[in-house]
Amino acid sequence: MTVALVTGVAGQDGSYLAERLLGEGVQVHGLVRTPDRLDVLPAGLHLHAGDLADTVAVAELVRETRPDEIYNLGGISSVAASWERPVETGAVSGLGAVGLYDAAWRLQEETGRPVRVLQASSAEIYGSPDRSPQDEGTALRPTSPYGVAKAYAHQMAAVYRARGLGVSACVLYNHESPRRPETFVTRKISVAAARIARDGAGTLALGNLDARRDWGWAPDYVDAMVRAARHPESGDFVVASGRTRSVAEFVAAAFAAAGIDDWAAHVEVDPRFVRPVDPAEQVGDPRRARDVLGWGGTLPFEEIVGRMVRHDLAVLGAA
Ligand code: GDP
User: Fold this and answer.
1) Is the pTM of this model over 0.85?
2) Which of 98, 148, 211, 319 has the fewest CB atoms found within 10 Å of its own CB?
């Protein structure tokens, strides 16, 4: 039986990944830091409480569970949070990843069995990129504590790959679902659209409406990570839709899905949500993932937005 270890299993991607692996008959061990949001987790999962930054405990967990596949999805989950906690961001999202690669490498050395590792890397490693769209050869120029920590983990993945560990890094662009927390703009918008539709009134305060992001569907990005982890040729893979939309376009699509035509009447710009440093546009070129992994997104933008809004309408009893 295949054994997998998933860090960050209580997050959006971790919960979809756990469902997927359990459905395949994989024995899944999940690392969680805080026991909140455990309600989203499927039955049959082996949960372990712990902190990625505690590299000694993480190494012990790897030795005990002896995984064939390790998915490193844990860490500080947003750029905004990394500005609040820059040191912790480095410890968890940077050094924590290296602790995991090292434990995987040691297990492989000890047992002679290959251990496959997948690092959930991020578009934030490109920060202010010198080219658009970004691909696997784009220079790393991170501009936030989050981006720098992820860039370190990304480059250490290449170091361990050269050392003989089958570690791949998926450079994930924004990927959304009804499981996104409201700290991300997409879910903030879908929840607000549902609330305003239910109440027939209300406003939504946002920051930069002109920011452009490359938004995809989270379960598709989880699929890319599984494909990358299992592919014989490990490496870096940009996982993106290849198309950007503005925050305003997301708002328009969400309000339309909730049955509201005049979205502008309900939206105000609040300087509190405008970021001091914010990449104006991020867009990835997913050709390598498509050609090597056979990966592609399954849902168009409007359907991603529609599913999020319909979920939130149902939660509010407004559907
Ligand atoms: P990120 O790209 O990983 O930081 O994901 P977010 O969903 O947090 O932000 C996406 C974009 O939306 C960024 O350019 C934000 O500046 C922009 N944005 C505009 N208004 C808001 C807001 O009210 N909340 C958040 N989180 N982002 C906003």
Assistant:
1) yes
2) 319
Ligand 1-lining residues (CB < 6 angstroms): 78-79, 174, 183-186, 188, 206-208, 211, 213, 247, 273, 275, 278
Domains of the chain: 3-175+217-239 (3.40.50.720), 178-213+243-278+299-315 (3.90.25.10)
CA distances in angstroms from 254 to 10, 202, 249, 260, listed in the order given? 26, 15, 9, 9
Q: How far is the CA of 70 from the centre of ligand 1 (A)?
A: 29
Catalytic residue among 77, 121, 122, 234: 122
Q: Are 66 and 83 in contact (CB under 8 A)?
A: no
Asked whether 142 and 82 are in contact (CB, 8 A), the reply is no
Tokens of 163: 């050392």
184 alpha carbon to ligand 1 midpoint, in Å? 6
pLDDT in tens, 188-231: 999 999 999 999 999 999 999 999 999 999 999 999 999 999 99
